[in-house]
Write a structure and sequence with these properties.
By secondary structure, the protein is of the alpha+beta class. It folds into two domains: about 80 residues, no CATH class; about 45 residues. Helices cover about 35% and strands about 25% of the residues. A five-stranded antiparallel sheet has the order 6-5-4-3-7, covered by helices on one side. Strand 1 and strand 2 form a beta hairpin. The relative contact order is 0.10.
Length: about 140
C-alpha cells in the first residue's frame, strides 16, 4: 500500500464499500434505503434488492438488525410489496436458519432464510427440499426438521 493510498483510506472502520468502490457510512446507507423503497423506478428498485443480495453479507449481525428495524419504519415500506416482503424475510433475525443437506454424496450446512416456503440463500436461489436433512432456526436453536 502506498503512502498516497493510506492517506485516502477511511479511518472509520464502519464504512462499507458500496458498488465495488464507493465508500459509504452505515448510517448513510440507512438514509439511502429510505429513498429506494419500492415502488420506485427500476434503478432505485435494483438498489433496494442489492441490500438483500449484496450488502447483507457485508454487515455485522448488529448492523443487520438495526438496518432491518430502520427500513421497516420508512415511509413506503409495506409487506404488500414483494420486494419489501423479500427484504423482510432476508433481514428478519428470527427467520435465519442453518440447513443441513446431502447432495451428490456431499454433506453441507448452509445459512438460509425462509421466503415463499423455501429455504433461500438468495432471492432466486433455494435449497431443494429433497436434499434437506435438518433445519435449525438460529435465533432460538430450535430444530425445525
Amino acid at each position: 500500500m502506498t503512502k498516497h493510498s493510506e492517506k485516502n483510506k477511511p479511518s472509520n472502520s464502519t464504512k462499507q464499500l458500496l458498488n465495488d468502490g464507493f465508500i459509504i457510512d452505515f448510517f448513510e446507507l440507512m438514509f439511502l434505503a429510505e429513498s429506494v423503497i419500492p415502488q420506485r423506478p427500476i434503478a432505485r428498485s435494483m438498489c433496494f434488492d442489492d441490500f438483500s443480495e449484496r450488502h447483507y453479507h457485508k454487515m455485522t449481525e448488529n448492523q443487520r438488525k438495526q438496518f432491518f428495524e430502520h427500513v421497516q419504519k420508512c415511509q413506503g415500506f409495506t409487506l404488500e410489496n414483494e420486494q419489501c416482503r423479500h427484504f423482510f424475510a432476508r433481514f428478519n433475525p428470527k427467520n435465519q436458519y442453518l440447513v443441513s443437506c446431502f447432495y451428490n454424496g456431499k454433506a453441507e450446512t448452509i445459512r438460509c432464510y425462509m421466503f415463499e416456503e423455501e429455504y433461500r440463500t438468495q432471492k432466486n436461489r433455494f435449497v431443494n427440499s429433497d436434499y434437506i436433512k435438518k433445519v435449525v432456526r438460529l435465533h432460538d436453536s430450535e430444530t425445525i426438521i
